[in-house]
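Chapter summary example.
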Amino acid sequence: MTITATLCFIIEEDNILLIYKKKGFEAGKYNGIGGRVERGESIEEAAKREVKEEVGVDIDNLEYTGLLEFYSIESEPDWRVYVFKAKIVNGTPIETDEAKPLWFKVNELPYESMWGDDRVWPPLLLKG
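The structure predicted for these 128 residues follows.
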């Protein structure tokens, strides 16, 4: 089984919005904003919905930046994650039950509190 999901990085000038995930998958880590694509939903619709649910803002200007595939060697499902960059078009990020949003300078990401592979691919995303 493969789960399809999105991951969105909101970038404003030289700042990037990450969330500290409070519960669920990725709890206790910083990452972009995202989640599963629901049935009948496009990948872009899912990215916008997840951002709205997790930090309360509307985004637009989605720019597809890549695809991450995670393969399980056990009984866990595989993941196919579509990665986007976006801009806020309405609202200010707010803390929710799921996540606490924080702005970081793009050259000062908290890699020690992110997933191990995040030292590799987010710098490539930020370079374009």
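To summarize the output: The mean pLDDT is 89.
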